[in-house]
Amino acid sequence: MSSRKQDVAPGRLDHIGVAVRSLEDALAPYKDGLGLIVSEIEEVPTEKVRVAFLPVGETRLELLEPTADDSTIARFLQRRGEGIHHLCFQVDDIEAVLKRLKKAGVELVDEKPRAGAGGSRVAFIHPRGMAGVLVELVEKEQV
Ligand code: CO
C-alpha cells in the first residue's frame, strides 16, 4: 500500500446521519432510553433541516428533521421512511479524496466541496457508487 493512499484515507467516522419525522419524538428513546446526551440542536436553512447531534465516543449521531416538504430529508422520508440516511467520514484533504473517487469512476453528488458548519467543507458521494450508502466527506477548518 502506498503512503499517498494512506494520506487521503478518512481519519474517523465523524457522524451517522439519521432521517426523522420529528426531532422531539425521535430523541426521546436515544436520550431517555439509551442515555445519550444532545450536544447541540441547530437549524440549517440552506438544507431545510433541523439537526440534533448526540456524541457517542469518537463519533456522533446526527438526527435530521425536515423543515419543508421539498427538503431532501422530506423526500427521503417519503420514499424510505425514517432510518439511517448517510455516513460522514472526516478527511484531511477533501479535494484529494474527491479527485481519487472521480478517477475511480465513482459518481459524485458534489464535484467540488461546499461550505459546511463551523468553517468546514463538505461533499456528498452518490449512493449508487457506494453500495447503496450516501456518503458525506467533511474537512474541518484547520486551526
Ligand atoms: Co451529515
Keywords:
143 residues; 8-stranded mixed sheet; 35% strand; 2,3-Dihydroxybiphenyl 1,2-Dioxygenase, domain 1; binds cobalt (II) ion; single chain; alpha+beta; 8 strands
Describe this structure in words.
- Helix content is 24%, strand content 35%.
- The chain has helices spanning 3-7, 23-33, 72-80, 94-103; strands at 12-19, 40-44, 49-56, 59-66, 83-90, 114-115, 121-125, 134-139.
- The two termini are 30 Å apart.
- The chain has an eight-stranded mixed sheet.
- The mean pLDDT is 93.
- It is built from four helices and eight strands.
- The protein has one domain: 2,3-Dihydroxybiphenyl 1,2-Dioxygenase, domain 1.
- A hairpin with a 2-residue loop joins strand 3 and strand 4 (59-66).
- It has 143 residues and is an alpha+beta fold.
- The longest helix is centred in the first third of the chain and has 11 residues, at 23-33.
- The site of cobalt (II) ion has 6 residues, from strand 1 and strand 5.
- Cobalt (II) ion binds next to strand 1 and strand 5.
CATH superfamily: 2,3-Dihydroxybiphenyl 1,2-Dioxygenase, domain 1
Whole-angstrom Rg: 16 Å
Domain tally:
1
Bound chemical compounds: cobalt (II) ion
How many helices? The count is 4
Spans of at least 5 consecutive residues with low confidence: none
Instruction: Characterize the largest beta sheet: strand count, sense, and whether it forms a barrel.
Output: 8 strands, mixed
* CATH third-level topology: 2,3-Dihydroxybiphenyl 1,2-Dioxygenase, domain 1
Name the CATH class. Answer: Alpha Beta
Dominant shape:
globular
Strand order of the largest sheet: 2-3-4-1-5-8-7-6
